[in-house]
Amino acid sequence: MSAFFDTLDSVYLPRKGTLLQLTYRLNDTAIGADANYQHLHFQYLGAHTWGGHTIVAGTRFSSTLAGTSPLYDTFSLGGFMNLSAYQHNELNGQHLAFSQLVYLKH
C-alpha cells in the first residue's frame, strides 16, 4: 500500500516543489513471498528557490517492522546525493534513517 505526492520540477536537482511518499509492504509466504516480513518507508523532499539560491531539504526513514528482510530486499544508501562518498547502494541493512540539506547557487 502506498501514497505518493510529487510536485518537484526536476528529478536530480529540483528548484521548487515537494515530494512525499509513504509505503507499507507485507511479504507473507502464504501469498507467495520468499519470507515473512513487513516494510515501512517514509520520504520527504522539499525544494525552495529565492533569487539565485535554492535550498533542498529531505529525510527518509525505512524499517523492517517484523521479520528479517532477505539481502535482496534491504534498504540501501550510497551514490549521488545519497552519501556520495560511497558507491551506489554500498551500504544496506534492515533500517535506514537519512537526512540531507543541499544549497545550490545558480
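(ticket continues) Second input and output from the same batch:
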Amino acid sequence: MRLTCALAAIALAAATTFPVVADAQQAPPAAARYVTNVTAMRSLLNDPAAKPVLARHIPDVVANAGTDQARGMTLKQIQPFSPPSPAKS
C-alpha cells in the first residue's frame, strides 16, 4: 500500500509540472511516468524528483543497504519483502 501511495505521489508531482492549457484547448491527460510493475528502482532512485518521494513514503526501503541489490527490481517485486504498513485508525 505504501509503495502504491509513493508511486501515486510521484505521478501526481510529474502531472502538476505541465503548464495550464486554456479551456478551448484541452490537453490530453498526462501518461503515467512510472509504473509499479514496470519501472526499476534504479530509475526511481536516480530521478532527483522521485527519490525524495520514495524517502518520504518508504524510508526503510530507500535507506536499506540491500536496496543496491534490488536496483533492477520493480516496486511490485520488492513489495513482498517490505514490512507491512501500520494499521490506520
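Agent notes: The mean pLDDT is 74. The chain has one domain: 2-17+34-81. Closing as not reproducible unless the customer responds.
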